[in-house]
Amino acid sequence: MSREYIPVSEIFEEWRKDPEYVAAYDALEEEFALAEALIRARAHADMTQEQVAKAMGTTQAAIARLESGRSMPSTRTLQRFAEATGTRLRVSFVPGKDTSKAPAKAKRPAARRKTAAKAGKAAAKRSSAA
């Protein structure tokens, strides 16, 4: 007896037509991205969870929880993970999907702009005098 399989890509495309599925999937994007980055760093270092745990002074179970995406680790934990895997931690902020909700860019008060301009001119004079 032969079973017919449906490719995952076809199922995924069908699910993506459901707005509730899309909302739930998108809400988990950040968690999955962090878990993926942790797993990728460990794989790149060619280390097991046990080896990373030993380098961090923790347990394999703790590393498994980090890589599961079910918890939100502190920046200190992420830094320790980076050090253990020989990588560098980098955090960035990127524009969201709906940037219309972002607050307007705050302007510096005129007094601060003048002070900054004076400091820049003074630095330029010092560098040209040297």
Summarize the structure.
The chain has about 130 residues and is mostly helical.
What does this structure look like?
Helix content is 62%, strand content 0%. The termini are far apart. The chain has a domain at 7-91: 434 Repressor (Amino-terminal Domain). It has 130 residues and is an all-alpha fold.
Strand-helix topology:
Layout: H1 8-15, H2 19-27, H3 29-44, H4 49-56, H5 60-68, H6 75-85, H7 110-129
Helix pairs in contact: 4-5, 4-6
Question: What descriptors fit this protein?
Answer:
130 residues; 62% helix; mainly alpha; 7 helices; 434 Repressor (Amino-terminal Domain)
Mean pLDDT: 82
The main pleated sheet reads as: none
CATH H-level superfamily of the domain at 7-91? lambda repressor-like DNA-binding domains
Helix content: 55-70%
Number of helices: 7
> Which outline best applies?
flat
